[in-house]
Amino acid sequence: MFRLIGNVSKKVYYESENDSDLNKWRLDNFLNDSQADGHLVSQYDAPEAMVIVKVKANKSRREYLNDLLDQGKFEEYRRITMENYSRDIEVYGRGKDKPKLIKRRKMVEKLFRQGITNTAEIASRVHIARSTVNFDLRALRKTYPELKQKRARS
Questions:
Q1: N or C: which end of the chain has fewer CB within 10 A?
Q2: pTM metric for this prediction
């Protein structure tokens, strides 16, 4: 985002997404062409001296991460929030060496992503206790924020 601002009055004359549109607007509004002695003379008549300023949106880290989630950029969210980006290490923690645990959590995640939000139904399909399903979903939500948007029902 760019702004054309008056140097003395600090008045914002125009805002634009890119500086080329802003410069085009400036030239269209403040450039006067006139015929003098058989050739074209251009005069720049602006009310005051102006400056083109790039505006940065100062957002906190939390707001930026929430914007990424709203836009559906989950991979970028994970890349920012997790320093060492390894799915099995982050999701499964100490259990990364236990294939049984990994298989169980992947099954719970798959069913939950399919739209089954009832923990009792997930537990019956995976053949585990409901408390285990809740524990697995809690661990998965830490890494996969898109699962936070769909909350499981008991």
A1: C
A2: 0.39
